[in-house]
Amino acid sequence: MRFFRLIALLGVCLVLGGMAPQKARGQDQGEKGNDKVLARVDDMVITVRDLEHMISLLPAYYLTRPGSKEVNKKALLDKLINEMLIEREAKKLNLEQRQDYQQRRKSLLRELMVDVFLKKLREDKDTEANQRRFYEENIDRYSYPEEVHIAIINLQKSKEESEVIFKMAEAGKDFAELARTYSVSPTAKKGGDMGWRSRRELSDALSEVVFSMKKGQIKGPIKDRGGYVIVKLLDHKKTRPIPFERIRTKIYNDYALKLRDDEIARLRKAAEISVDGESLKRVRVRRG
Fold first, then answer.
1. pLDDT tens for residues 16-59?
2. Which pLDDT score, from 0 to 100, does residue 54 have?
3. pLDDT digits (tens, 9 = 90+) for 127-159
4. Mind listing the pLDDT tens digit for each residue in 59-93?
5. HSE-CB for 100 with a 13 A CA cutoff
6. Could you give the CA distance from residue 210 to residue 222 in angstroms, rounded to a whole number?
7. What phi-psi label fits residue 151: left (phi over 0), alpha (psi between -120 and 50 degrees) or beta?
8. What is the DSSP letter of 71?
9. How far lies 19's CA from each of 4, 45, 50, 52, 283, in Å?
């Protein structure tokens, strides 16, 4: 649906931007560069400039063939020709006078104006300096989470039996070997190694313990999910910022959203807005 709305917006933009199909005017003599006739559709022509203008209005991800970085110019030209033919037929039927056309046109023009306004807002304010300031002010959003590298022995035994195995680990018996022998976790074959985990990747009972442990320390047995766990902390990483360059695109998009939201909030605060709640309830929800 977003694609078709984009194409509809493009059509309005092409008309407002001056790229309407041209009637053929005599011979092609003297036509050079961007004004050269690219295609003819009966008595209408499409110039190189027309297609270039169309391409300039489309987002990059609509321009390439799958697996290729080349712009699919032939497909875009065919689409333009198809739309010209349909538009001509629609005008013959005087569809421009239909109420649904007028309502849709009004909606598309408004949406187009909003898009152009927000684009200008980004052009004026979405600078790298502002993006970096936004990044620094929201550094918690752009940081790697605190993580622990742990190994566990997951036991489906009584607390007393689990304590016996814990004392063996605490006394220095090889933790990986104990995990391979006693653990019922899928990590048993890897000596209980669970790799790096953040708080949200662990149960509350386990995260509460391991994030306060020292490197190399062993604790247990911890009651967890119907059994007991013995855990060894192999390493610990504190939270740390993700480099700006690595997430530049995300910051650009996040800051653009902030600009939009801030501007909308400013406009709404300055405006007198009233809503008739009862009328809102009576609004019919229809599609098409």
1. 444 455 555 444 444 555 689 999 999 999 999 988 888 887 76
2. 83
3. 999 999 999 999 999 999 999 999 999 999 999
4. 666 655 555 556 788 888 998 899 999 999 999 99
5. 3
6. 11
7. beta
8. B
9. 19, 11, 6, 10, 38
Distance CA 249, CA 71 (A): 22
Residue 203 is given by DSSP the state -
Helix, coil or strand: residue 26: coil
Contact 121, 230 (CB under 8 A): no
Q: Specify the pLDDT at position 31.
A: 52
pLDDT, tens only, 195-209: 999 999 999 999 999
Q: Where are the alpha helices (DSSP H) in 138-224?
A: 159-170, 175-182, 204-210
What is the rounded average pLDDT for all residues in the chain?
86
* Structure tokens belonging to residue 16: 């407002």
Between the alpha carbon of residue 195 and those of residues 140, 152, 190, 192, 214, the distances in Å are 24, 10, 10, 9, 16
Measure the CA–CA gap between 127 and 32, rounded to whole angstroms: 38
State how far the Cα of 244 lies from the Cα of 258, in Å rounded to an integer.
17
Distance, CA of 42 to CA of 184 (rounded, Å): 76
CA dihedral 188, 193, 195, 196 (to 10 degrees): 120
Q: How far apart are CA 135 and CA 242, in angstroms?
A: 10
Query: In 10 A of CB 68, how many CB atoms?
Result: 8
Q: Which residue has the tokens 């321009």?
A: 63
Q: Which residue has the tokens 């063996």?
A: 168
